[in-house]
Design goal:
The protein has about 500 residues and is α/β, with parallel strands linked by helices. The chain contains 21 helices and twelve strands. It has a five-stranded parallel sheet, with helices on both faces. It binds nicotinamide-adenine-dinucleotide.
Length: about 500
């Protein structure tokens, strides 16, 4: 059966579906970037909210800013904006549910004025974003807004025919202001630390160039709540589409798959009304910082630990690492002995439960997370995810062995570009050449890798660290059997 509104109540019973009246739902949220993650996360929460409370004010109008979004737009239109979410459990069970919270979709290049009007409409209370890190247009070198970007220059010259998110936000906020209407909240759902602050800083840099008066109004009136988002959502594969068709009898051209875990911690800082997402599991907090820190130091750092050690050992995926008891034990000890002691208490969260849950999520054999993907751009990840754990443990005299072996492994990985068996590794990193050059000097100068100041800061000056690191990196260059070093750290000689 084709997925659409007419067939919704004829679908097989094993497929859950909305029971609320979609024809009564109004657009309260305009969402930019209807990728897999939006559909597994915010649209899922909003669907649950409508299902459990019967609210009709928070329907979502999706917007695609790129021509590449035409495909999802066409499919959603055919399916009356319905799609299936397949939740893949670690034990192999699959749970399928049709999501009804998306009720419209617009492709910006087809009609920019209509998109601006939709964003500035009095019923639009929130404009939310999942536009990937690249969409925020900051320079990796300086962290500042990149005014040289040709699309940004185009938007500054053509305010009513924008291409970028900054052009659209500015034009629609200008419309609100000109008719004396309060602005909407701008809510980032991208995986960026302090994503709201980042959006605000970038938008203000753009708006100040276009209209300094408007920039001052945005600065005063618009809210940009920070949020921590979490739900692993892999790219949809042809076999997911086939599974739905053959096992569930649903023809959906673009379903989404994800893990069962879901988390959304949001700073309660909105300009006007907001959905009561807390009734369906989201958490509203005054400050998202401790939640972000917990996620980065345990989930993201945990990924890097498995990613770098696993790549050298010859594992291919996160679940592959977790099926190896040595790696699973090592990860847990790293989290317990090194990451946790330097975390702050996080209200409402039991860190042991959080770690147990991470171990289960990483081990989910249905979510094949590739180590090459995990390791890409390690030079921007490790300084945020892992190195602060080392420096904070150095200050308090805590354990650093688990994390230091990961740095030694990263040196070997950057120098050789192969696993211990010589199998080539697919390394993607903006600093790939610099990392490789610094690492290649290791046999002559064991500390050469650490001298990359933008990555390691002053770590090379810390003798407790360099002594441990030198021992490990020398051992690795002598014998790249990483498992042996992991065993030594875990169980002694
Ligand atoms: P996706 O590739 O399915 O979708 C990306 C969307 O972003 C598309 O709609 C695309 O048009 C849009 N986009 C990309 N660059 C843009 C730009 N410069 N301007 C405007 N729009 C742009 O990816 P996804 O899995 O949905 O992930 C999107 C983001 O969600 C990630 O970058 C991350 O910040 C966040 N996230 C993803 C996951 C996950 O597991 N997939 C988990 C947590 C957070």
């Amino acid at each position: 059966l084709r997925l659409n509104q007419q067939n919704l109540y004829r679908l097989p019973a094993r497929v859950a579906r909305p029971t609320y009246d979609r024809s009564r739902v109004k657009v309260g949220i305009v969402h930019i970037g209807v990728g897999g993650f939006h559909r597994s996360h915010q649209a899922f929460y909003t669907d649950e909210l409508m299902e459990t409370t019967g609210t009709t004010e928070w329907g979502i109008c999706g917007v695609g800013l790129r021509d590449a979004d035409r495909k999802i737009g066409d499919i959603l239109k055919k399916q009356d904006h319905l799609y299936s979410l397949i939740v893949k459990h670690p034990g192999g069970q699959m749970e399928t549910r049709v999501i009804g919270s998306l009720i419209d979709f617009m492709l910006s290049c087809d009609d920019p004025a209509a998109v601006i009007a939709r964003m500035a409409h009095p019923e639009t209370k929130i404009v939310s974003l999942t536009i990937t890190e690249g969409g925020y247009n900051f320079s990796p070198a300086t962290g500042e807004f990149d005014l040289k970007n040709p699309d940004v220059r185009h938007d500054l010259a053509n305010p009513m025919l924008p291409r970028t998110i900054f052009g659209y936000l500015t034009a629609s906020l200008q419309q609100c202001r000109s008719v004396g209407r309060p602005p909407f909240t701008v809510q980032s759902c991208d995986n960026i630390q302090h994503n709201g602050d980042m959006t605000r800083r970038m938008l203000l840099a753009f708006a100040a160039k276009q209209d300094p008066e408007l920039a001052r109004w945005i600065e005063r009136e618009v809210c940009f709540p920070n949020a921590m988002v979490d739900r692993i959502t892999p790219v949809t594969t042809p076999s997911d589409i086939e599974y739905l068709d053959t096992e569930c009898g649903v023809k959906d051209e673009w379903p989404v798959t994800c893990e069962p875990f879901i988390q959304w911690v949001i700073e309660d800082h909105f300009c006007g009304a907001r959905p009561a997402w807390e009734t369906v599991g989201a958490q509203f907090v005054p400050d998202v910082t401790p939640y972000e820190k917990m996620k980065i130091r345990l989930l993201n750092a945990g990924h890097s630990v498995l990613g770098l050690l696993g790549s050298i050992h010859g594992h291919a995926t996160i679940d592959g690492c977790m099926a190896d008891p040595l790696f699973a034990t090592y990860l847990r000890r790293f989290m317990d002995f090194e990451a946790t002691p330097v975390l702050d208490a996080v209200e409402g969260i039991d860190l042991d439960d959080y770690k147990d849950c991470l171990i289960e999520r990483f081990g989910n054999p249905n979510i094949k997370d590739n180590l090459a993907r995990i390791c890409l751009e390690s030079s921007s990840k490790l300084p945020k995810f892992l190195i602060p754990t080392i420096t904070e443990n150095l200050t308090r005299g805590g354990s650093i062995e688990y994390a230091t072996l990961v740095i030694a492994a990263w040196c070997f990985y950057s120098d050789k570009g192969t696993s211990r068996h010589g199998a080539p590794l697919d390394i993607v990193d903006d600093l790939k050449a610099e990392l490789n050059k610094a690492a290649a000097d290791t046999p002559r100068d064991p500390l050469s890798f650490l001298k990359l100041k933008p990555v390691f800061g002053d770590l090379v000056r810390h003798q407790t660290f360099t002594t441990t690191y030198t021992r490990m990196v020398n051992a690795l260059y002598e014998n790249p059997d990483i498992a042996r070093q992991m065993q030594t750290i875990l169980f002694g000689q």
